[in-house]
Amino acid sequence: MSEYSLRRSDERLQVTRPQLSKIVLRRLPPTWCERPSLAATPLALALLAGCAGAPRPTPLGPRTAPLVVERTVAPRPPLRITRVVHASVLIECDGATLLTDPWFTQTAHYPPREALGVPPDSMSPLSAVVSTMNHYDHFDLDALAPGMVGQAPVVVPAGTRQAERARSRGFAVRALGPGDSTRAGPFLITGVAARPTNATATAFDYEQAWRIDACGWRVLVVGHRLTEAQARAAGPVDIALLPVNALRIKPLFKRLSLSPPEAAAVAFAASAPLAVPMHYRYRSSWLWERLVVAHPGTAEAFAEAARARGVTSLVVTPGQTIELRAR
Ligand SMILES: [Zn+2]
After folding, report:
1. Quick check: is 323 in a domain?
2. Domain range for residue 220?
3. Cα separations (Å) of 193 from 179, 229, 245, 280?
4. What is the pTM assigned to this prediction?
5. Ligand 1 centre and the CA of 114: distance in Å?
């Protein structure tokens, strides 16, 4: 059994693993267009767009032992957070479940490089689905079956095409702006501004973070970016779920997601004693890795940066659950 503790002004926080869990990261087999010998040919360049191909299901991985985190707070029901894959988690309390940033399939250019932790058909009934942005790896709408979601609302940022896309597929949609809230079962879902303004952002660029209140706990969910000032305004929270891979589009030198030190600063600004790194295993196809994307941030670098800020980093694999308990 391993144990970590964090001394804060008013509490002693304890993290335990009920049993030693083996981290299993399965390397997914490359598709034909990921092979360097083929990707380096002019034929591959001509086929680059088509190389992405049709989405295929992401394979399922094993479940691993949960992490139990006890905090000295007033009595309340436990809150469970299970990593599904990439930036997607299930948040459960009081018998209800909320899903964030669904991504169940992959293409040659967009594989999560980690196995799916929870099969989609085991998730219903859901109380809500929440998405931070209209990107394939945060809003895999085609793989989100209406039967799985039922009448549960699909909660999206206002002002993007997400609402229209989801409505056209028969989902009940709630589009919220920053500061807007909606209830779904025991969950109070509040939009957190993640961009200075929505007016100038493109559909590709715009995103919104979410604050989820449930069973007396507060969770901050960030898709790609959040400033320290925005995190401070959203806090204090019990736990922050943060992207850490410093994703960059090479031709434009445009940065899309937080770096490990930036994510640690966001967790600290939100007064989060706990933080979970996400969005860090993705690697594209061989050609795209050289020409299009860079993503140097790792979970290990985040754990180090978080430690320097006095934040406890919980690195969990897909399929692994963190259970927050009051004591
Ligand atoms: Zn992303």
Report:
1. no
2. 3-52+63-315
3. 8, 10, 21, 23
4. 0.85
5. 14
pLDDT tens for each residue of 108-145: 888 899 999 998 888 878 999 999 999 899 999 888 88
Total number of domains in the chain: 1
The CATH number of whichever domain residue 70 belongs to comes to 3.60.15.10
Alpha-carbon gap, residue 73 to 55, rounded angstroms: 44
Compute, in angstroms, the gap from residue 135 CA to the centroid of ligand 1: 7
Query: Do residues 193 and 208 make contact, with C-beta atoms less than 8 angstroms apart?
Result: yes
In a domain, 324, yes or no: no
Separation of alpha carbons 239 and 294, rounded Å:
27
- φ, ψ dihedrals at 21, nearest 5°: -105, 140
Collect residues with CB below 5 Å from ion ligand 1. 137
Is residue 33 in some structural domain? yes
C-alpha to C-alpha distance for 197 and 213, rounded to whole angstroms: 25
| pLDDT mean by block of 10 residues, the chain; 327 residues | 39 50 32 39 46 79 90 96 97 96 90 91 91 93 85 92 91 95 98 75 78 98 96 97 92 84 98 97 86 91 97 96 96
Please list, in sequence order, all residues whose beta carbon lies within 8 angstroms of the beta carbon of residue 95, skipping any fewer than 6 positions away. none
- List, in sequence order, every residue forming a beta bridge with 172; answer none if it has no partner: 153
Q: Is 308 exposed, middle or buried (0-12, 13-18, 19+ CB in 10 A)?
A: exposed
Task: Give the model confidence (pLDDT) of 73-91 as tens digits.
Answer: 999 999 999 999 999 999 9
- Domain annotation covers residue 262: yes
Distance of CA 100 from the midpoint of ligand 1 (Å): 12
In 3D space, the residue among 187, 202, 195, 191 whose CA is nearest the CA of residue 229 turns out to be 195
Please give the pLDDT value at position 18. 45
CA 46 / ligand 1 centre spacing (Å): 26
**Residue 102 phi, psi (nearest 5):** -60, 135
Q: Is 195 exposed, middle or buried (0-12, 13-18, 19+ CB in 10 A)?
A: buried
